[in-house]
Specification:
Two copies of one chain form a homodimer.
Chain A: H1 4-11, E1 19-20, H2 23-29, E2 43-45, H3 50-63, E3 67-70, E4 87-90, E5 97-101, E6 106-109, H4 115-124, E7 127-128, H5 141-147, H6 154-157, E8 164-171, E9 176-179, H7 192-196, E10 204-212, E11 214-215, E12 220-227, H8 230-243, E13 246-253, H9 254-263, E14 276-283, H10 287-302, E15 306-311, H11 315-326, H12 328-332, E16 338-343, H13 349-363, E17 368-374, E18 379-385, H14 392-412, H15 437-450
Helix pairs in contact in A: 8-10, 13-14
Chain lengths: 464, 464
């Protein structure tokens, strides 16, 4: 698939050894965490400067070669998969923190800075980078921006979008744009920074980003509550939101908890069995705040919404309570689950979840549905475990039908077919369940503005 | 200028009496708070529904008539001025709050809802709409979105952008788009909602917006501090930000304060004369927070940054301290001031302000410079009072030179020529000081995508 003469011209644009074409590299850098598409790039290139990125993009335009940006490759939608002879542009060698300003609380990052690297840097400054999720140890800032990464603290801190003060991008024509210049207030026309956030590399590549930091949270404290039924979760959320500034409000089902408990390495929160659990977190910055949390808990028990609960009294206990939620995804991966990442507005969550439970239960009573997610922001992770009686192929054939039901219900509730994992290739064909034909038309026209030759991550979000 | 036959066809699209062409209406609805352009629209139309807005836009495309959206007409950049025979589309009859959801904390607003109407509605629900500024009593939500309005609480709550959960827009072709569907998490391609926010009506019209509310702030408390010099303001901001979640951090100069005190209707904060003052606000939700504020104040005095200070002990005192800052703009309007609304990153503010003071003072020693602004977000309002010895024309001729210096210094510090007032027509010719030629080119191309016939508020942000 690789054209040797073409690759030689690419090599001339970067440092020696920074173009790889061996089979192992093509395999490794051609994919993300999804497994549905076979990686087939023709080369991997590792720029070390913005100028080299620009040169690569100009080269790609000249030779009509498609480019795929590559960060930590932890994506779950195949947005960073190169399955069609593309050249992968890896930002692994543009991974430095370039500057820090304590007054502006900003950090200038190259796109290859790993999320955890930024989190740790912030901590060293006595500050906080609040976007956090399971893959923080390998995901990169450029990829976070490309997918507008969310995670477990969105209810308080919002998505990655909220933390991008400014950025430099190289568009599909190789032009360098400096977007927003790190300003808080800037009313000078269209905020194109926002367009590139969540664009999955289809408009251009993020080559530098100034990220904001926040003050460090004080005495983070978690509660795990056992709910009488799913419908009780919503008034519990409401009651706590009226009293506290929550930093997280997660939920998981008894089935999810049972799988985690079966591991044997996490202490139980409490003895009472409940059908659903909520994990909430807040800053117990003063005793008054902690008391308000306890009073609200008691109110929820009196109302019959909550059957039992526990509040962390130490950093260790905080970590242990979080494990009940954070270990779910990895734990259930052994059951080859069908997974879907969807959202609706918070108030619609109970009816939405009920509809999906009902239709799946009716047609496939042997399917075990494991729900968990960021319920404080309406983002549900639907997981269906493969019954032992089915082969993988049989199971995923049935799941294709489930997919259609789920997206129809998403559409019915005016929700999103992808809450935080992006569209990439895995959800491309379902985009019309969430976006109108007119919207998709405008999106394609915007892409043509920034990428007239269609070389920037083509086939992602929508078909070429 | 009005074409009677054409206007008849327009009248057929809306309710009887909802097209005005009398001289008084043309004058009133053809302008905003700027005075630089003579209003000259050919008609004013008042749609009452989204369908009517779509019909008007289709009509405008058919007849190649330019449209200017019109809200509270409180703009300061002439973005809502119709000076060239346009038809003004006023949203005065689309001014209803349509829905409220207590779980999502969202309010569905028609574009003509007045900011204060939304603020009051939120208060009635025990919640809070945090975007606030001098013209909140007449500005409308549609206009706020069009200019991404900021104001006095941005340091804590951000701009209007942060509070738009979703919106319906009519594009320049008359298509209706429902953008983001009020979701918190939605990773389905380009977030076009963000493009329309701050677009000054040049891409389409906002015809409905779902705005988020926040919990009501608790026991808002203000401090006014007298600073030893301007350079001391920044470490004071830094010290307080490290200890408190500030809801505001404003500043003003002794000259600004003197004008307000001369009114005689505001009690002084304290006796000590200082060259600069800071007004900061926070939620004194517990005694511990109030104590942390007092300790920080004492630290600032010990460091020599602060000479005197006062903390509000009552709602009345809070209001009175805010008057010291909020009355400035109206008070100095009697001196026919040259005004400019500019921003840089927070850490650059002292050097930036110094440069402007120096060049203006050197060339025009008789000019009285009055500084105030939202220093916590880097947004400065520069005001120069007209010396009595100069006529208006002489003064504004000299100010044209000042303008150029100011924008050159903005460019030097990588700032924004318009922090929150927008570009409109008044700053259109200076846009290149803040945005590169490439960026302006992309903006024009984006406009062509949504408004191929160039009928949506043409000549605003950039020349046609």
């Amino acid at each position: 698939m690789t054209d040797p003469a073409l690759i030689e011209t690419l090599k001339s644009l970067v440092e020696p050894g920074k173009v790889l074409t061996d089979a192992e590299s093509l395999e490794a850098f051609g994919k993300d965490w999804t497994k549905h598409f076979a990686p087939a790039p023709q080369a991997i290139v590792f720029p070390k400067s913005i100028e080299q990125v620009q040169a690569i993009v100009r080269w790609a335009n000249e030779h009509k070669v498609a480019l795929v940006p590559s960060g930590g490759r932890t994506g779950l939608s195949a947005a960073a998969v190169a399955a069609n002879g593309e050249v992968v542009v890896s930002f692994d060698y543009m991974n430095q923190i370039l500057d820090f300003n304590e007054f502006d609380r900003t950090v200038v990052c190259q796109p290859g800075v790993v999320t955890e690297q930024l989190q740790n840097f912030a901590e060293e400054q006595g500050l906080y980078y609040p976007v956090d999720f399971a893959s923080a140890g390998s995901s990169q800032i450029g990829g976070n921006i490309g997918t507008n990464a969310g995670g477990i603290k969105v209810i308080r801190y919002g998505m990655t979008r909220n933390w991008v003060a400014g950025m430099k991008v190289v568009t599909g024509t190789g032009e360098l744009l400096e977007l927003n210049k790190d300003l808080i207030k800037n009313a000078t026309g269209y905020d194109m920074r926002q367009l590139f956030i969540g664009a999955e590399g289809t408009l251009g590549f993020v080559v530098e980003a100034t990220m904001r930091l926040d003050r460090a949270p004080q005495n983070l404290t978690a509660m795990v509550l056992g709910a009488a039924d799913f419908d009780s979760i919503m008034p519990v959320l409401h009651a706590f939101q009226n009293k506290l500034d929550l930093t997280a409000f997660e939920f998981f089902s008894d089935k999810a908890l049972a799988k985690v408990m079966a591991r044997g390495d996490v202490p139980p929160a409490f003895e009472t069995d409940c059908p659903f659990y909520a994990l909430l977190e807040f800053e117990a910055s003063t005793e008054e705040v902690a008391n308000a949390a306890l009073e609200t808990f008691e109110h929820c028990v009196e109302q019959g919404w909550v059957l039992d609960g526990v509040m962390s009294q130490s950093e260790q206990q905080l970590q242990n309570l979080w494990k009940l939620r954070e270990y779910i995804s990895e734990t259930i991966s052994h059951w080859t689950p069908y997974k879907n990442d969807i959202s609706v507005t918070v108030s619609k969550v109970p009816a939405f979840l009920h509809d999906i439970d009902e239709i799946v239960g009716k047609h496939y009573p042997d399917f075990e549905i494991v729900w968990f997610g960021h319920i404080g922001d309406g983002n549900l992770h639907l997981n269906i475990l493969k019954p032992e009686s089915l082969t993988k192929d049989e199971f995923f054939a049935k799941c294709a039908t489930v997919n259609k039901w789920v997206f129809e219900i998403v559409q019915k509730y005016n929700g999103s077919i992808s809450a935080e994992h992006g569209v990439g290739m895995t959800k491309r064909d379902y985009l019309h369940y969430s976006r109108s034909a007119a919207e998709i038309g405008y999106m394609k026209a915007i892409k043509a503005v920034f990428d007239p030759n269609g070389i920037m991550n083509p086939g992602k979000i929508f078909a070429e």
